[in-house]
């Protein structure tokens, strides 16, 4: 692949194809058990006894789409600081305890959520709960630790975005596509905002969002639901609830005409990124529309036999690589995206034209029954494959619950996708994939110069300074 | 480690999260390839790459309390070695066929092994690429191929119900035994591979990785990147691919790993179906030995980036090395255990110099590399490199403390059940055990062997095998002003090797 897959390409597939549903008899997906504690904490448990392991995840309803100008990146930086200790478990202690118990731990921040996880042997859940409960309310936020961690995140930003031309293009693209929606801001934050963030900003942010009534605990693995609920009561039960106000809406105004931008960065190959404003489940005019958009995305990019690879990469050979992505399950409406790298002998305008022609065709002709059948088959198969991983099963539940759609959607999702008709796919293409909703970004490669190999004289050895 | 999300779309949770860095494919290591180059555009940021690095190191673990999966093994009629684990819970199967046909077999044609593997699904029997894609996807199955320095792996995941299973296996057998390397597809793949190679030149991490392998391995085949060079890829012909395929895609040169809802007779039939039509052939000859790095080397490449990527390395160890467990456990403490490693503490926690820092061994058929690395803003590169090398020196001289050793043992043994929980995790273990001829009880005995290692054994193994004064070092980033490298003998990083 010569195109770093666009965001939705990554998730669209697992999501579309992997959600459990009572659609088939191939393998009964395990049931989900739900309990809400007195302080508002929601606990979801999905027993899966294939192996003596579990994943424990704490999902907070906060992420970059909760932020506003001047403090972008605060959610992600706070996520980093969550590993820096409490009075009961000073810096380093958390990770040390987790490691000594053989657990994997990490955290991730998105536009719509911040989540922390431990994967561990199924008899050690109490360890994860004790630590997570402690840092839910008692984070220390030391100024010296903060200063160093801000440097770390700045390095992270350089690595992920500043020095990656396609990532940089994606960041600029979203900033142009959205005028007011907080999806215009990068999750990692703008460099200038990161620079001026203060530990006090993080304290405020922590107080606003880190509370049991703003979190969901998800446990999937070899567990008894009642035991998990009892442990949750023991560790999280004593935590106090907070008054949590919903974030400002920052509604996106109607787009009035196509937007275009150019991004200049050191690169060897150009890159094209297009996005149409589309609804999500949260705001769709008709409930089936987002599902039709998901199916449309799979028609274009649901594997090597889907249209983009078959027709643009192999057929006309205009694209070296091409992709499509969409997510129905964001907290706010987003984009239907197309992207690609032109093949040899073709340029960005030719690629754009070819992608637009694909969109036109979806408006003109209904998709074939065979294409829908392939997508349905893939949905069913991926529902089985997904059960190979307790981690991924938990992520699906956590995401749906945290963006406000409810985890129950995981049980209905596949059926809703399978019910989409060719006429519905055509209808959403006609309604939403229109020029006035479109933003187009082009990466304009600048020289990657100064790369002449300069071999310094060997000799770091000994004790001499090597220049 | 790079593991891969945004809005709802983006949880970056690829298989790399607990991948098998450097073992199966060029994509799985921290400097292994594009899979690691996700970006903020994906919308989600893991706190660190630690989980991946950690994962990269954890290839073979075991515990007394937790035996590994029950592995059955046999040979097909044409000599392929089969390893099978029955996993009856889910109605699915994973099959991975591994050939001793990695990039180390490229010879004078860098990129040949990977290019050949990439062409398998472009045509086989009387199928074209569209047909092959449809055959798999219309039954919900997937087909993939990957090439690293030692091996080429071709993998299928399918439901066990019919007609999915038969269709998927027949397709796999066809692409393995009778690829047609059609001329038009070859030219298209050539041009797209060239675009990929140029895009690798955009990425300072990839530039650094390639340069370091060249420094560490010199004239050895491991020096060459599996993706090849522009010049070589331009020159590849269908005859080259066919000759490579004829020579290396044979029964004797293959290992078949199977995990899924099958019984033994069904697995036997599956193995025959998948590789039975390959000629018996013969195993590839052993690779040449890797010479020790003679002297330290430093290569500094300018790059229009805000960060400098720093890599240091030397030849490390092979699979089955007598020092394997001491070096593996020692490295786990030094830089292989993610957030709690000494390197992470020195470079990131104490100094805030880098988002990610790591060290690891990649054990291959011949000694693969021992690598360390980080990335930091250009004007800190000299300082960061100093900390990296000092930390290694300190650890190589003093070894771990008892507290560090105990913690690492608990981590590795306590985490064992996680490593073999998924079919997707068992498959690479089977591939490696079969490919490198490791004993079948390797997983079962791993914990005991880890627990038996002493701090003195680690110190001794590092003193003999790791040579901080003879590292190859590559820096990529910034203008052409050479990075000021501090004297590695002076001012050891405080507390390296200290309690952690």
Q: Any key phrases for this structure?
A:
heterodimer, A: alpha+beta, Cytochrome Bc1 Complex, Chain A, domain 1, 2 domains, six-stranded mixed beta sheet, 12 strands, B: Cytochrome Bc1 Complex, Chain A, domain 1, five-stranded mixed beta sheet, 14 strands, disordered C terminus
What would you say this structure looks like, in words?
The complex is a heterodimer of chains A (467) and B (500). Chain A is an alpha+beta fold. Chain A has 16 helices and twelve strands. In chain A, helix 1 crosses helix 10 (289-301) and helix 12 (348-364) packs across helix 16 (422-432). Chain A is globular, with a radius of gyration of 24 Å. In chain B, strand 7 (142-147) and strand 8 (152-159) form a beta hairpin. Chain B has 500 residues and is of the alpha+beta class. Helices cover 38% and strands 16% of the residues of chain B. In chain B, helix 10 crosses helix 17 (455-465). A six-stranded mixed sheet of chain B has the order 2-3-9-4-8-7, sandwiched between helices. Chains A and B meet through helix 1, helix 2, helix 3, strand 4 and strand 5 of A and strand 1, helix 1, helix 3, strand 8 and helix 5 of B. Strand 12 (454-455) of chain A pairs antiparallel with strand 10 (297-301) of chain B, so a sheet runs across the interface.
Describe, in short, the structure shown.
The complex is a heterodimer of chains A (467) and B (500). Chain A is an alpha+beta fold and 467 residues long.
């Amino acid at each position: 692949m010569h195109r770093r897959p666009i965001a939705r390409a990554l998730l669209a597939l697992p999501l579309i194809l992997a959600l459990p549903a009572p659609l088939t008899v191939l393998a009964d997906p395990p049931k989900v058990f739900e309990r809400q504690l007195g302080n508002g904490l929601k606990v979801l448990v999905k027993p899966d006894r294939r192996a003596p392991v579990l994943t424990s995840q704490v999902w907070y309803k906060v992420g970059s789409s909760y932020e506003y100008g001047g403090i972008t990146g605060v959610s992600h930086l706070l996520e980093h600081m969550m590993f820096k200790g409490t009075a009961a478990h000073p810096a380093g202690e958390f990770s040390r305890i987790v490691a000594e118990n053989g657990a994997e731990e990490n955290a991730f921040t998105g536009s719509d959520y911040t989540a922390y996880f431990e994967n561990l042997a199924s008899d050690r859940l109490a360890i994860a709960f004790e630590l997570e409960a402690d840092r839910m309310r008692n984070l220390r936020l030391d100024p010296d630790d903060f200063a160093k961690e801000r440097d770390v995140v700045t390095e992270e930003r350089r690595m992920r975005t500043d020095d990656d031309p396609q990532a940089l293009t994606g960041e600029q693209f979203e900033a142009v596509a959205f005028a007011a929606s907080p999806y215009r801001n990068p999750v990692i934050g703008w460099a200038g905002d990161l620079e001026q963030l203060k530990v006090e900003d993080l304290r405020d942010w922590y107080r606003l969002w880190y509370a049991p009534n703003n979190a969901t605990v998800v446990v999937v693995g070899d567990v008894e639901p009642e035991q998990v609920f009892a442990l949750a009561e023991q560790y999280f039960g004593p935590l106090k609830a907070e008054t949590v106000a919903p974030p400002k809406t920052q509604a996106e105004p109607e787009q009035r005409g196509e937007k275009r931008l150019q991004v200049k960065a050191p690169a060897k190959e150009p890159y094209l990124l297009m996005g149409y404003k589309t609804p999500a489940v949260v705001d769709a005019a008709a409930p089936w529309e987002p599902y039709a958009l998901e199916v449309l995305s799979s028609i274009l990019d649901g594997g090597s036999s889907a249209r983009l690879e078959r027709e643009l990469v192999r057929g006309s050979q205009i694209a070296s690589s091409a992709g499509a992505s969409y997510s129905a399950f964001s907290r706010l409406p987003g984009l239907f995206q197309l992207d690609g790298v032109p093949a040899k002998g073709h340029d960005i305008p030719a690629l754009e034209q070819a992608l637009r022609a694909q969109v036109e065709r979806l408006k003109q002709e209904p998709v074939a029954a065979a294409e829908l059948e392939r997508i349905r088959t893939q949905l069913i198969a991926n529902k089985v494959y997904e059960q190979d991983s307790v981690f991924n099963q938990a992520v699906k539940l956590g995401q749906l619950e945290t963006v406000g759609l409810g985890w129950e959607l995981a049980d209905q999702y596949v059926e809703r996708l399978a019910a989409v008709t060719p006429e519905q796919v055509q209808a959403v293409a006609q309604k939403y994939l229109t020029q006035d909703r479109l933003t187009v970004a082009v990466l304009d490669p600048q020289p990657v110069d100064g790369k002449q190999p300069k071999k310094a004289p060997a000799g770091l050895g000994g004790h001499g300074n090597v220049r | 480690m790079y593991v891969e999300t945004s809005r709802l779309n983006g949880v970056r949770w690829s298989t790399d999260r607990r991948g098998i860095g450097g073992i199966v494919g060029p994509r799985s290591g921290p400097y292994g390839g594009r899979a690691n180059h996700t970006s903020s555009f994906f919308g989600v940021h893991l706190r660190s790459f630690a989980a991946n690095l950690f994962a990269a190191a954890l290839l073979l673990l075991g515990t007394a309390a937790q035996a590994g999966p029950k592995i059955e093994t046999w040979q097909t009629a044409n000599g392929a070695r089969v390893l099978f684990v029955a996993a009856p819970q889910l109605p699915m199967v994973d099959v991975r066929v591994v050939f001793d046909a990695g990039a180390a077999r490229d010879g004078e044609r860098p990129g040949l092994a990977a290019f050949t593997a990439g062409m398998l699904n472009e045509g086989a029997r009387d199928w074209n690429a569209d047909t092959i894609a449809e055959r798999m996807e219309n039954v919900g199955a997937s087909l993939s191929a990957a090439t690293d320095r030692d091996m080429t792996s071709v993998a299928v995941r399918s439901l066990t119900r019919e007609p999915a299973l038969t269709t998927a296996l027949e397709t796999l057998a066809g692409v393995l035994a009778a690829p047609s390397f059609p001329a038009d597809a070859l030219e298209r793949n050539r041009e797209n591979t060239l675009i990929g190679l140029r895009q690798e030149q955009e990425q300072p991490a990839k530039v650094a990785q390639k340069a370091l392998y060249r420094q560490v391995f010199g004239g050895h085949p491991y020096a060459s990147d599996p993706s090849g060079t522009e010049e070589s890829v331009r020159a590849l012909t269908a005859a080259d691919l066919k000759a490579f395929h004829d020579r290396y895609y044979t029964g004797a040169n293959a290992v078949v790993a199977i995990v899924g809802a099958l019984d033994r007779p069904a697995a036997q039939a599956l193995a025959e179906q998948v590789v039975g039509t390959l000629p018996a052939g013969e195993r590839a000859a052993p690779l040449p030995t890797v010479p020790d790095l003679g002297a330290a080397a430093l290569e500094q490449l300018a790059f229009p980036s805000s960060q400098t990527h720093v890599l240091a390395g030397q030849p490390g160890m092979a699979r089955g090395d007598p020092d394997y467990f001491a070096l593996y456990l020692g490295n786990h403490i030094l830089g292989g255990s993610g957030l709690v490693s000494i390197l992470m503490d020195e470079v990131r926690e104490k100094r805030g110099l880098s988002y990610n820092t790591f060290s690891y061994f990649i054990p291959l058929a011949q000694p693969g590399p021992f690598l360390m690395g980080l990335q930091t803003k250009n004007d800190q590169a000299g300082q960061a490199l100093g900390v990296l090398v000092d930390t290694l020196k300190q650890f190589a001289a003093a070894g771990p403390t008892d507290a560090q050793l105990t913690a690492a043992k608990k981590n590795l043994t306590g985490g064992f059940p996680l490593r073999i929980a998924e079919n997707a995790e068992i498959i690479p273990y089977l591939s490696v055990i079969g490919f490198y001829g490791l004993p079948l009880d390797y997983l079962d005995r791993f914990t005991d062997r880890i627990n038996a290692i002493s701090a003195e054994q680690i110190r001794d193994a590092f003193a003999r095998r790791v040579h901080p004064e003879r590292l190859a070092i590559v820096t990529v980033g910034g203008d052409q002003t050479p990075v000021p490298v501090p004297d590695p003998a002076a001012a050891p990083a405080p507390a390296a090797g200290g309690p952690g």
